[in-house]
Design a protein that fits this description.
Two copies of one chain form a homodimer. The first copy, chain A, is 63% helix and 5% strand. Chain A is mostly helical. The first copy, chain A, is elongated and about 65 Å long. Chain A has nine helices and three strands; from the N terminus they run αααβββαααααα. The interface between A and B is large, with 56 and 57 residues. Strand 3 of chain A pairs antiparallel with strand 3 of chain B. The first copy, chain A, binds a DNA duplex through helix 3.
DNA sequence: GCTCTCCCACTTGTATGATAACCGGTCAAC
DNA sequence: GTTGACCGGTTATCATACAAGTGGGAGAGC
């Protein structure tokens, strides 16, 4: 085993200043509406130049944490961090992964319910096409992740609620890396699960096709809950009793 | 009617540069992984100083749209805007309001289901206290928005999933202003709804207290769906059939 | 004493020029 | 062929200056 490791690069000063200011505001050190110290004073306090402070402030402004007015100063927003929902990059902790996935189960379940009511003919056809593709892969004992993702994305789109769509895309992008890793780790232990997955997908689609919102939601939740277990994340605790 | 209106303040240059760069990246003008023009070149192109460009870049970095490396340049992220979910401030359009509220119904319903399984004694007590407070207000034909919000927040917390909690707080903050406005507009038309609201809240709590996840979820959805209708947003289309 | 105006100190916004740190490539030296 | 010094280009940081906006206080005018 070699002790060689990638070196830790010195973090940018503006990153660090932004981090500390964000933390201070979130901790309530500066109440909403309160005025922050001037850029000059912050620069002295952090022992950096004003440019660095300004770049940090620029990020806080973009996060709607503060609002600045020329000649007056910088003020903490009335509702800090209101227009923004952030997820830590690459949630490595299993607990976090479980919780985020749980959120996805809830939202995508509801999306499937809506899709059952609202999906049009072309969207149903798209889902059917994905199922066909996956079935071919299943015959070869393989999974087709690409068609899988497309199937789920089509359902999200068919909910006809762009916020469901966007939020699921967002969650998907954040879970993607972690899922791939978990899939790799547990692949050997569940060699036959591709058949189960295919059956679950078909159950979801069948419910959507017959316009049964309640069944579609239940089927999607059941599918995703099973997926959670396959990934070693434990079950969706609050599922239908 | 006076023609006096608030003056339009000249936007900050860094805001404008950040806006244009963001748009360009989102439009795919710079593909993921591609290198952006150097700060010097961007400064010349936008006819601003390098400071302005750097402040704009600082925001793009914070949004995880680009990644910079000293000596190399700025590169578009592999998955632009991955760690970030944004909502437009003050969604005025009823359609958007409906869609966002629908998302909330789905998530908060699931949260109630989880709370039924996981809520501890102190959380149940907190919910009970909120109900009592609201009941007092109901007797005086008034609603107690503060206790109402606290009731919902307690359920979110009792889901024991911080992501549900945070996301609902986030949605709540974004809906708050619009809800207040809608409430004001429709208050006169629904003078007796406070009684209905109280009954709905009690149904939610009763289900949570007897640990019935399915009933808690249904009750919460029914409550929020009714709330949507009271606000003139139309029903939650994909509700349990 | 009251009011109005002007001025000043302070703050943020922008520009400029300089230096340090860093990167990839070139090319001579060995 | 490998090494290592060097170079041009890029980001990171700094110092300084000036423009523009704000609020308050000094002081004139009444």
């Amino acid at each position: 085993m070699s002790s060689i490791t990638s070196v830790t690069r010195a973090p940018r000063l503006s990153d660090e200043v932004a981090r500390q200011l964000t933390a201070a505001i979130r901790a309530g050190e500066y109440a909403p509406g309160a005025r922050l110290p001037s850029e000059k004073e912050l620069a002295e306090r952090f022992e950096v130049s004003r440019v660095v402070v300004r770049e940090a402030m620029s990020r806080l402004k973009s996060d709607e944490l503060v609002d600045t007015r020329q000649g007056l100063g910088a003020f903490v927003s009335a509702e800090p961090g209101r227009g923004l929902f952030r997820l830590e990059p690459d949630p490595a902790i299993v607990k976090d992964l479980h919780d985020i996935f749980q959120l996805r189960v809830a939202v995508e379940g509801a999306a499937a319910g809506l899709a059952a009511v609202r999906a049009n003919r072309s969207e149903l056809a798209a889902m059917r096409a994905c199922l066909r593709e996956m079935k071919i892969s299943v015959a070869g004992r393989q999974d087709d992740i690409e068609a899988d993702n497309r199937f789920h994305a089509t359902i999200a789109r068919a909910s006809r609620n762009p916020y469901f769509d966007r939020f699921l895309t967002f969650l998907g992008a954040n879970l993607h890396g972690a899922i791939a890793k978990a899939r790799f780790n547990t692949a050997a232990r569940h060699p036959t699960s591709v058949l189960a997955v295919q059956a679950e997908h078909e159950a979801v689609f069948a419910a959507i096709e017959r316009r049964d919102a309640s069944a579609a939601e239940a089927a999607m939740r059941s599918h995703l809950s099973a997926a959670m277990e396959r990934l070693g994340l434990g079950p969706f605790a609050g599922a239908r009793s």
